[in-house]
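Q: I'm writing up a methods section and want to include an example of the input and output format. Could you take the sequence below and give the corresponding predicted structure tokens, formatted cleanly so I can copy it straight into the document?
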Amino acid sequence: MGSSGWIFPLYPLPRVAPKGWWSLDQGVDIGGNANQCGSRLRELAVASGTIVHEGLDGFGSSTPVLLVDSGPDKGRYIYYGHAQPALQPVGAHVSAGQPIADVGCGAVGISSAPHLEIGMLPAGAHSPEDLPSVGETSHETMSNLNAAYKTARAADQARRAAAAKAKRHSLRGH
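A: Here is the clean output for your methods example:
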């Protein structure tokens, strides 16, 4: 979990486009490094909460909206635009890091290539459909993503180093 309290929302990490390719929108657009979609690039819950809505105008009929129930963003809505299919039904409680959707393949909502647009609704939003305007919360979302990405990359590098060490150890017959 990053210093923001978020888990990075895409898995597996090696398939995520470099940070220089991410872009600000209503939320933050993040794609795969080779336009991965479907089960090749999963969307994860950034925090624990409940899926309270599915489908948003412009983002596709399978867009999950998560109502965060703990941590610094408790009470905030997080949307996962351009998802398809959603993997959790409305009403499901999910844990941070649990798969909730796949990145949609093709044009899902108003999009031209597979990607996730993840965004946070403004604090105090009364409905999961009260989307932010462009730039309203995208910098806050980007800050949370950067912290979560840094933590996820460090964990991925540690996991890879441990696997390489175990492989070297087993090759020596120990």
